Amino acid sequence: MELELWRRVQRESFSKISDAADFLELDEENRGRLLERPSFPFLLPKRIAIKIDKNNLNGPLARQFLPLKDELIGGQGFVADPTCDSSFKKEGKILHKYDGRLLLITTGACAMHCRYCFRQNFSYPEGGGFFAKEIEYIKNDPSIHEVILSGGDPLSLSDMMLENLLESLSAIPHLQIIRFHTRFPIGIPERISLRFLEILKNSLKQIVFIIHANHFDEFDADILSSLKQVQSLGIPILLQTVLLKGINDDLQTLKDLFLGLSSNGILPYYLHRLDPVIGTSHFYLSKEQGSFLIDELRKFLPGYAVPRFVQEIPHAPYKTLL
Ligand code: SF4
After folding, report:
1. Checking CA distances to 40, which of 81, 117, 152, 240 falls within 20 to 30 Å?
2. Alpha helices of 83-149 — where are they, by DSSP H?
3. Res 294: pLDDT
4. What is the largest CA-CA distance in the chain?
5. In what order do the strands lie in the sheet with 146-150?
6. Residue 140's pLDDT band (boundaries 50, 70, 90)?
7. What angle do CA 131, 134, 139 make, to 5 degrees?
8. Whose CA is closest to atom 8 on ligand 1?
9. Is 115 helix (H, G, I), strand (E, B) or coil?
10. 113 C-alpha to ligand 1 centroid (Å)
11. Four-residue CA torsion sign, 161, 167, 170, 175
12. CB-ligand 1 contact for 110 (6 Å cutoff)
């Protein structure tokens, strides 16, 4: 992450568990539930922290970001790289999994650290500056019609880096769509600055945003308004969500999330089954539990507001519909 942006994340976030514990007024019992030195470092934007109930580690936002000793519980089938991402590494920062599109792992940095992140052990390639090798790889493969800017979080890159990247991608004739996968605005919506909006507006390719959120409580008026500004450029925004035990595994929570965002023009895209990464077995739900919730949602919501329930099965040619 660029130094200035990183300083901002540091200023606007808790990176020490003890500071967050003080802010959340945790009692001794709750402090005892926290993992002091988690292998995946702690990072929590203050904007999210103020939405967490005091002295409660069981709420939907606390569970997503506070590292609990539950992370030490093992589980059969829980592995370091559940989607086998490392086997899809190509030139530089490219992951090429599916035909026609590929992921550019722009950075390892995020605005927050989600405890269930399937890429928490990923060995992010270092260096590479302005993605010269990656651009060359995409140029040389005319079957690629879409590039997905992933990470980490692509909004961790500076405006200058993003502008340069979008310009290089825009110059590739066979490329049609540039997709951003981001969670950054949920923690720091100010990242959607006028300068960044200008860069998006100048793109010669269609841009699509996929934001990641798991509970409607993550949102507030500033976040929705920053996303509206992106939409006002003709950029569709879709939602992807991970189904997580104790966070969003009930009908009302999912209804509130999908209806709340649909009414803001953000349509649900995927509901992911948890990728079984080590340390996340306390979030795990069966396939049947997820399918039941989706069936129930169909009774209450219009079809466009019900996401597809999917799982990433390593080496399958696309996400598997459950
Ligand atoms: S923002 Fe995305 S990549 Fe970053 S920790 Fe959360 S889930 Fe992982």
Report:
1. 240
2. 132-139
3. 98
4. 60
5. 94-98, 101-105, 146-150, 177-182, 206-212, 237-242, 267-272, 308-311, 320-321
6. very high
7. 120
8. 117
9. coil
10. 6
11. negative
12. yes
Q: How many CB atoms lie within 10 A of CB 284?
A: 17
Average pLDDT score over residue span 301-321? 94
CA–CA gap between residue 85 and residue 119 (Å, rounded): 8
Distance CA 13, CA 255 (A): 29
| CATH domain 85-321 topology | TIM Barrel (3.20.20)
Question: Is the Cβ atom of 243 under 6 angstroms away from ligand 1?
Answer: no
Task: Give the pLDDT mean for 219-247.
Answer: 98
Q: CA–CA separation, 75 vs 116, rounded Å?
A: 14
| 186 touches 219 (CB < 8 A) | yes
pLDDT above 80 for 10: no
Q: Is 293 in the pocket of ligand 1 (CB under 6 A)?
A: no
3-class SS of residue 311: strand
Q: Which residues pair with 208 in a beta bridge?
A: 179
The predicted model scores a pTM of: 0.95
Is 35 a pocket residue for ligand 1 (Cβ < 6 Å)?
A: no
- Above 70 in pLDDT, residue 121? yes
Residue-level pLDDT at 128:
67
Q: How confident is the model at residue 4 (pLDDT cuts 50, 70, 90)?
A: confident
For the chain, which residues make up each domain, given as ranges? 3-72, 85-321
User: Ligand 1: which of 13, 61, 66, 119 to mutate, judged by most atoms within 8 Å of the beta carbon?
Assistant: 119
For tokens 């340069």, the residue is 164
Q: Relative to the CA of 110, which ligand 1 atom is closest?
A: 4
Burial 84-101 (b: 16+ CB within 10 A, else e): ebeebeebbbbbbbeeeb
152 lines ligand 1 (CB under 6 A): yes
d(CA 140, CA 19): 49
